[in-house]
Amino acid sequence: NAGVTQTPKFRVLKTGQSMTLLCAQDMNHEYMYWYRQDPGMGLRLIHYSVGEGTTAKGEVPDGYNVSRLKKQNFLLGLESAAPSQTSVYFCASSWDRREPQHFGDGTRLSIL
Amino acid sequence: GIQVEQSPPDLILQEGANSTLRCNFSDSVNNLQWFHQNPWGQLINLFYIPSGTKQNGRLSATTVATERYSLLYISSSQTTDSGVYFCAVLDTGGFKTIFGAGTRLFVKA
């Protein structure tokens, strides 16, 4: 049982490049989330999804887009990467918004 | 929006010591979770505790929702307890989970 899997684990981009981070969960969870973690801070919610085909904005959505075409996958896209988006990105999933969230191992993204 | 404050920000313990970490939140919440982020960056869910007390081995947690705080107790600390402990709350009526800034714990052998 893999739980929540994030790919890639590391990536270096140049300013202006685009990329997509993939999150996959095998627990049949309805809710999925993308967070970013900056040094010395807690996690901040970027976007979330309450089910297949739905997405919504979190605390810090600017510069990111998401899609949930399949229930098990939640994609985070950066259309034009900026150095301010250098961070560690975590994906999580849960049965319901009140239920415990299960996290992936994170993606370390550096933008030069 | 809801504010989450954790204290202390940093804590150094000798192996075998006990400690209490605190999480204060500014408004009513639907749930509260405690996480441990290990030195490799992995986030481990310790407790889901919107109210009451739970125990898991050397760790226990208490949330007093009416007074808007939660406590995480670590007894007989071990070096493997090192890392950052986060409290996270879900605001009432919302979908957004808000994390505190964390307590960084270092346990010395």
Features:
heterodimer, A: 112 residues, mainly beta, seven-stranded mixed β-sheet, four-stranded antiparallel β-sheet, 11 strands, 49% strand, globular, B: 109 residues, six-stranded mixed β-sheet, five-stranded antiparallel β-sheet, 0% helix
Oligomer status: heterodimer
Distance between the termini of chain A: 36 Å
Mean pLDDT of chain A: 94
Number of strands of chain A: 11
In short:
Chain A is mainly β and 112 residues long.
Walk me through this protein's architecture.
The complex is a heterodimer of chains A (112) and B (109). With 112 residues, chain A is mostly beta strands. In chain A, the strands form two sheets. In chain A, strands 2, 4, 5, 6, 9, 10 and 11 form a seven-stranded mixed sheet that branches. A four-stranded antiparallel sheet of chain A has the order 1-3-8-7, with no helix packed on it. Chain A is 0% helix and 49% strand. By secondary structure, chain B is mainly beta. Chain B contains no helices and eleven strands. Chain B has strands at 4-7, 10-14, 19-25, 29-37, 43-48, 52-56, 59-64, 69-74, 83-91, 97-99, 103-108. In chain B, the strands form two sheets. In chain B, strands 2, 4, 5, 9, 10 and 11 form a six-stranded mixed sheet that branches. A five-stranded antiparallel sheet of chain B has the order 1-3-8-7-6, with no helix packed on it. In chain B, strand 4 (29-37) and strand 5 (43-48) form a beta hairpin. Chain B is globular. The termini of chain B are far apart. Classes of the chains: A mainly beta (112), B mainly beta (109). At the A-B interface, strand 5 and strand 10 of A face strand 4, strand 5, strand 9 and strand 10 of B.
List the helices and strands and how they pair.
The complex is a heterodimer of chains A (112) and B (109).
Chain A (H helix, E strand, L loop, with lengths): L3 E4 L2 E4 L5 E7 L5 E7 L5 E7 L6 E2 L7 E3 L5 E6 L8 E8 L7 E2 L3 E5 L1
Parallel strand pairs in A: 2-11
Antiparallel strand pairs in A: 1-3, 3-8, 4-5, 4-9, 5-6, 7-8, 9-10, 9-11
Chain B lengths: L3 E4 L2 E5 L4 E7 L3 E9 L5 E6 L3 E5 L2 E6 L4 E6 L8 E9 L5 E3 L3 E6 L1
Parallel strand pairs in B: 2-11
Antiparallel strand pairs in B: 1-3, 3-8, 4-5, 4-9, 6-7, 7-8, 9-10, 9-11
